[in-house]
Amino acid sequence: MIPPKPPVRPEKVSLLTYLRLFRQDILSAxxxxxYRAWMAEFRTPFFRSYMxxxxxxxxxxxxxxxxxxxKSDRIGAGLRPLLGNSVFLTNGATWERQRRIxxxxxxxxxxxxxxxxxxxxxxxxxxxxxDGVQEVEELTSFAAADVIFRTLFSIPIEDRIAQAxxxxxxxxxxxQPILNxxxxxxxPKWMPRLFSxxxxxxxxxxxxxxxxxxEARMAxxxxxxxxxxxxxxxxxxxxxxxxxxxxxxxxVDQVAIFFLxxxxxxxxxxxxTLYLLAMFPDWQDKLAAEAKALDAGCDFKVMSKxxxxxxxxxxxxxxxxxxxxMVRESKCPENFRDRAIKPxxxxxxxxxxxxxxxxxxxxxxGFDPTRWATENGKQCMRDAFIPxxxxxxxxxxxxxxxxxxxxxxxxLVRNFRFETTERxxxxxxxxxxxxxxxxxxxxxxxxxxx
Length: 450
Description:
Layout lengths: L14 H10 L14 E5 L4 E5 L2 H10 L8 H4 L3 H4 L8 H11 L5 H21 L3 E4 H18 L6 H16 L21 H27 L6 H7 L11 H32 L1 H10 L16 H13 L6 E4 L4 E3 L2 E3 L4 E4 L1 H4 L20 H9 L14 H18 E5 L6 E3 L3 E3 L4 E6 L5
Parallel strand pairs: 2-7
Antiparallel strand pairs: 1-2, 3-11, 4-7, 5-6, 8-11, 9-10
Helix pairs in contact: 6-7, 6-16, 7-11, 8-9, 9-10, 9-11, 11-13, 11-16, 12-13, 12-16, 13-16
C-alpha cells in the first residue's frame, strides 16, 4: 500500500491556471517532473523562481552561504499580521540577535526540564480521547497546543487565555492562504496585501491575548514569582553581545511563532503519523508493545526506549513534512547547474519533493520506518532529509519536536487502536501539510492483550 499523495498537474499550463492552482494547494499545483528533477525554473512576469533538489545546492543555500540567500519576504509578508518581526521572518543582524536570546532556552538540558509538562499534556490527550470515528487533526491540534502552553507558560489548554488563543488560531487557519498578492508582486511595505477582514481580525485578537500573557509573566518575573518555564527563560536571557532582553512587543512576536511553529507543525506531523499507523497495523502493534515502557512513569530516560516510535515519526516527517516548501532570495549573481540566477530571484527548497525524490530515496513513496538503518536511509538522512530546515536557520525547536512527537505517539497507541475508514485523506498545503477534508480514523480503547 502506498500512503496518500496529492495529484500532479499537467506539464504545461497557463500562468493564470498555475496561480489559481497554486493558491488552492501548492502541492498539487506542481508537475510530476519535480520528483525527479535536480533543478527547475519557473518564470512569471514579476520574478524568476528556481526549485533546487540537488543536495549539494541545498547545502550551499542553507548551510554554506545562508547570508547570501536570506528568507524571502514574498512568503513572510502573508504572515506578518500575526507574526510581526518574529525570528521566523527576520534576516541579518536582527535574526542573529533573536537567536542569541532564544536558543539557550532550547538547549539539551532544557528538554529534561520541559519533559514533565509534555508528559502531562500526553496524559490529558489520552484522557480526552474516546471511542468512535473521529477527525484526528482536531485532536492532535488540541494536544499540541496543550504542550506549547504547558511548556511555555505553565498553563494547560483549558486555561481561559490558552483556550481563547487556540480558538482564534483555528479561525485564522481557515482564512489565511499560504500565499497572497505579496508572494507574486514585490512592493513596498505600505502596498495593500489583500488580507481578508477575518484574517486581520483573528491575527489581532491572537496578539492581544498573547500580550496579556506576556505582560503578566513580565510582572511575575519582576516580583520573583515566575515559574521556571520556557517563557521565563527567554524573557530573562540577555543578548550576550548587547546585554539587552526582549521588549514586550518583541516577546509577543516570538510567542506567536512558537505557537504557530510548535503547535501547527507538531499537530500536522502527529495526525499523519496516526494515519500511517492505521494503514499499517503491524507497525502500530509494534509501537504499542514498545510503549509499555511508559508504564514506569514520567522519566526522561524512557525516550531512549522509544526507538521504533522515533523511526515511525521520522518516516511520517519524511512523507508529510509539515512545512512543504522554503523560499530564499538570491542576493548575488549565481550559477546553478549552468543557469544564471540574478539577484532577487527566488530559490525554493521543497522538503516535500526532496523527501520523495526518485533519484535519491529507495521506495520514495512507500512507508518504511526500517529505512533509517539502511545505507540509503543513512545517506539520505544526511543529504535529503530537512523537515526542520538545516544550517544556521534550522528550527530551534527541532530537538523539542523529536521528543514531543514520539512521546505523544507512544502514549496514544499504548491506550488506543487506530483504524482507517472509507475516507482517504488528501494532503494539501495550507499553513502546513494538512488533509483537505480532515483525517478520519476509527478509534477504540486498546487492552493489554490486544
